[in-house]
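Quarterly update from the structural biology core.
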Amino acid sequence: MSASGREMNLAAYRRLALGMFACRENSTSEMKTTKWLALLVLLFAMRVGADPDSTKQDWTNYVRIGAYGLKGGDALQIVRKAQESGVSGIEVDNDIEGRYESFLHPEEKLKAIRDVAQAAHQVGNHAFVYIAGTECITAHGDQAAHTMAKDHPDWLQRKITGEPAIFGGGTAFWIRAGDEDVWVSPYAPEWRKIYMERVRQIAATGIDGIYVDIPYWMTHFKGWEDTWASFDDYTVAAFKKETGLDAKKDLKLGDFSDPNFRKWVEFRIRTFTEFMHEIDENAKSVNPEIKTIPEIYPGIEEEAVRVGADVYSLYGVVDAIAHEYSFGSGGHTASTRTPQRWFQYQVGMHSFRAFAQGKATWILNYSWDGDKKVDAREAMMNLAMSEIMAGTNFWDAPGHSMAGSNDLPTRKKIFSWIQAHEKTFYLPRVASHPVGVYFSPETRNISTEDFIRSYRGMLILLMQKHWEFQVVTPRSLAEFKGETLILPEVRILNDQERDLLRKFVEQRHNLVITGTDATQLGETANVTRFPRCPGKAYMSAIESDFERADPNSQAEVLKSLKNMSEVEVTASPMVATSIAAVEGNPHIFFANFAGLRGRVNPVQTPQTGVRVRIAKAGKGKAFFLPFLGDVQEVIGVHESDGRTSYTLPTITKGAVFWYEGGEAKPTKE
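Predicted structure, tokenized:
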């Protein structure tokens, strides 16, 4: 979990479950507290528009991350190593908050942070420092007279039965024998007061960012998965003050049909959204330019509600999110992923970019874990390619750790290439004529499996069909400019969402409803309903045999989408595409997953004959940038229907194609 050796063992550490932005039957009536209303206003005020302005970008949008343990006295060495390997965004770890000794006495670690910040700035780099969220370890706690648990037992998170969140060596691989590991209630007032004081002290060092690792409720160690903790006195009192309910008596834990349990779910997620907001406020009160970056494991799937950290809501109150993204079982490293798994990860990353609305999305994924039949360098390149094609920032790390690299020369090569083409990948991507796919946080909370299968199925269908798509959320619905919007098994809509959808339909746009219909709209020509969800049907086909799944098998729903894009792509369905305008020019990002076999083959089957046709291209030039290659011009052919056709060079791992208006004239057919 830290750069100094706390590896991220996903299989052992993160088996969580359920949800996102808390479920509620009547959103308006239940948001009664002034605090929550204020947070909603903040989320709206901080939201970047649907068409992000490149002038709002900062260093977080362009980072190439490497991580280093910070011992003190090693600042110059850390920065030198970072510079040598092309790192631009240096993560350092001495974890003031997560170690009881430095939580009480931070002076020595604060000096080390100040030193590395100054060293990074002297060479034009940026540095950010790791701190724990609610976890705190006391070294040799079995022998120490003072530990967090011994000194402050009332601060700890607890099961409903009263058992405190105290763990020892062997519970998790980063907890050494004899150490005491505890998880603190975010409502413990004295702990929170000291925590925020430490945040301000860290910000005062001049460090560029504070990286908050897993601000979670303790529901991910063995025996705690189904507890829906915490039921400590401080948390129970806060819930009672807000709702009038006794969390220990008035809830049916795990029952999403129980409105009181839904309130508990919402409260738990809101807690950590507000906690991160408070960290951000405290840090910026000292250093207005500092960035707050939480590290979060749950993504779009069912894990968020149980731990209380929901990236959809968190993006509104932080500057960037580092996603240690994983889901389900298997495929957690690039070397183990099947093509189907690669596409599912693309869905997740495109969702994060939509949630971020112009803020940076960092991906702390893992490329290689010692698989003997897989070349670590190929696995690293596959992971980097998949991430940058989705517009996210690549963080190179070995195995399941944060620090180091599986192959330093390959890191240098990848980072150098990303730096040379960073504007292509990280300038804002703006949709032109997308098919929208709606992400409903509340539906995902109460009906996770049905919603995610439908949502994933529709997005993978569009990626494989090579149509322009856009993930639309409640925050971006009002600004959506596409002609068609899909509601994939969306079962919960509030009054504002219904009103926006009604206006969308009244403007003669196409609304496609799959599965459940929660819109309350009448029968109209531009509302198409599919009671049997084609997204779920396509996911079933994918899961049965991904390589034989044919996107054209969903011809009826594809016809209803009325694709209006001026860009047409012909390529294998084993290639994921995303289409967007960058600086006003149409770009197509290709990620090739053909031929990949987890733990066996990390080398793609090259794709030849990929063709792009552009309507009304007229005079201009087209370019092709292969992954780790050089930009080359592509000559177009004018066709009888007025389109200009471009046959692309061979795509190995991935590539970008784009068109720029100009004076060059394509050749005649």
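The chain has three domains: 10-133+186-223+257-427, 435-561, 567-668.
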